[in-house]
From TrEMBL:
InterPro entries: ERG24_DHCR-like, Sterol_reductase_CS. This is Delta(14)-sterol reductase TM7SF2. Belongs to the ERG4/ERG24 family. It comes from Microtus ochrogaster (Prairie vole). PANTHER family: DELTA(14)-STEROL REDUCTASE, DELTA(14)-STEROL REDUCTASE TM7SF2. The keyword Nuclease does not apply. Pathway: Steroid biosynthesis; cholesterol biosynthesis. Keywords: Cholesterol biosynthesis, Cholesterol metabolism, Endoplasmic reticulum, Lipid biosynthesis, Lipid metabolism, Membrane, Oxidoreductase, Steroid biosynthesis, Steroid metabolism, Sterol biosynthesis, Sterol metabolism, Transmembrane, Transmembrane helix.
Length: 418
């Protein structure tokens, strides 16, 4: 890229040095967590009990399994959809079209896995394959991101993301150059964001539950709660699939290593950490505590769903009766900002609900180890950083109206605290 073509967008994630560190640290952290979960001490901090050799990580059979999985999800994505949604307007004034059939893909995957298990598919063997599976997925994400980078070299300037075109190869490879890379009507980013990793996560959880039942006669209450909570989260994401079209990932971020690795590897192998931990470190959980944890999950879900649905309904149709009575601030762009309802409580109520749910996912694992709380810690850091990125974008987009909103709603995520 010539310097003239390089975008002037401010560098994020600590620039080239920061993203180089993340390129190495993210996969290393994922393998550390996988090894720690199965080790006796299950330490989050400190060196792993041992370092696996290449023969433990590399398996052509597992790579083949991964490709079968990706192929299955592609086939389900290509099935006729109940609805085709339009994305937000792009720089060239066009709008992309997206199939809404993610929930259908989840149900069909469940049916196929159910049929497979009843025909003797050894799903309980999956936990023993997590290390080579994570290795194959990391390798695939890396090669996939290189291909995406190469594809973006031929993309028109109007198709590039605002952030991933600094002219620095490593930085752009990490953030992603092209906003919506597609092959025909197949959208790589949209597909990866919601299908193979997210559905893979609940399949891994289920395999861990089945393995626990095989080992101990029945699944524990803690394992059932973790499975149920995370299945609800994934089911919700696919049921409300259309709302992903207005997230920062789809409208702002390019598709590079960060999202490819995040979607395909990081989500299934680290978000299933609580279930992995429970398989190797069973935790007693009484009914009263289980009910309290369900209550916390319900509060988190109520806030998360309420806030996301309120904003999505408002963005789609501000005169919808459920949002028409809410107070708003007009902006120079013609759009309005909500200042009452969920979005008048804090500036990111959906993050608050998501964090409360994250706490409920960890609590069934007890308080003897820090490891199952990794997701809560990582997610807090991710959302605080994401919130700061979003605020900068909103300030650029809405200027004074955003400043007025910040004055009216001073707290970002947690009322009276942050
Ligand atoms: N589990 C996980 O790993 C992750 C989960 N998430 C979840 O994904 C969901 C989506 O998050 P994300 O994409 O970050 O951002 P949001 O859904 O919070 O969207 C932010 C956008 O909403 C609009 N907005 C902000 N304030 C207002 C307001 N007062 N009134 C109307 N519109 C407003 C602005 O866009 P505009 O005005 O242009 O519409 C802003 O850019 C969240 O629930 C989050 O918790 C996110 C990351 C990771
Ligand atoms: C590993 C890196 C530091 C960063 C990678 C981040 C990604 C793992 C996340 C970025 C935004 C995400 C979203 C979801 C999953 C995690 C990633 C991909 C999401 C699909 C989870 C389900 C939710 O209901 C959602 C709102 C649809 C989420 C959208 C953002």
């Amino acid at each position: 890229m010539t310097p003239r073509e390089a975008s002037q967008a401010p560098l994020e994630f600590g620039g080239p040095l920061g993203v180089t560190a993340m390129l190495l640290l993210l996969p290393a952290t994922m393998f550390h967590l996988l090894l720690a979960a199965r080790s006796g001490p299950a330490r989050l901090l400190g060196p792993p009990a041992y370092l696996p050799g290449l023969e433990e990580l590399w398996s052509p059979r597992v790579l083949l399994l991964l490709f079968i999985w990706l192929g299955l999800q592609v086939a389900l994505y290509l099935l006729p959809a109940r609805k085709v949604a339009e994305g937000l307007e792009l720089k060239d004034k066009s709008r992309l079209r997206y199939p809404i059939n993610g929930f259908q893909a989840l149900v069909l995957t469940a049916v196929l896995v159910g049929l497979g298990v009843s025909a003797g598919l050894p799903l309980g063997a999956l936990p023993g394959m997590l290390l080579p599976m994570a290795f194959a997925t990391t390798l695939t994400s890396f090669i996939f991101s290189l291909l995406l980078y190469a594809k973006a070299l031929a993309a028109p300037v109007s198709a590039l993301a605002p952030g991933g075109n600094s002219g620095n190869h490593i930085y752009d490879f990490f953030l992603g150059r092209e906003l919506n890379p597609r092959l025909g009507s197949f959208d790589f980013k949209y597909f990866c964001e919601l299908r193979p990793g997210l559905i893979g996560w609940v399949i891994i959880n289920l395999a861990l539950l089945m393995q626990e039942a095989e080992l101990r006669g029945s699944p524990s209450l803690a394992m059932c709660l973790v499975n149920g909570f995370q299945l609800l989260y994934v089911g919700d994401a696919l049921w409300y699939e259309e709302s992903v079209l207005t997230t920062m990932d789809i409208i702002h971020d390019g598709f590079g290593f960060m999202l490819a690795f995040g979607d395909l590897a990081w989500v299934p192998f680290t978000y299933s950490l609580q279930a992995q931990f429970l398989l190797y470190h069973p935790q007693p959980l009484g009914l009263p505590m289980a009910l309290l944890i369900c209550f916390i999950k319900a509060i988190g879900y109520y806030i998360f769903r309420g806030a996301n649905s309120q904003k999505n309904t408002f963005r789609k149709n501000p005169s919808d009766p459920s949002v028409a009575g809410l107070e708003t601030i007009p902006t120079a762009t013609g759009r309005q900002l909500l200042v009452s309802g969920w979005w008048g409580m804090v500036r990111h109520p959906n993050y608050l609900g998501d964090l409360i749910m994250a706490l409920a996912w960890s609590l069934p694992c007890g308080i003897s180890h820090l490891l199952p709380y990794f997701y809560l810690l990582y997610f807090t850091a991710l959302l605080v950083h994401r919130e700061a990125r979003d605020e900068q974008q909103c300030l650029r987009k809405y200027g004074r109206a955003w400043q007025e909103y910040c004055k009216r709603v001073p707290y970002r995520i947690l009322p009276y605290v942050y």
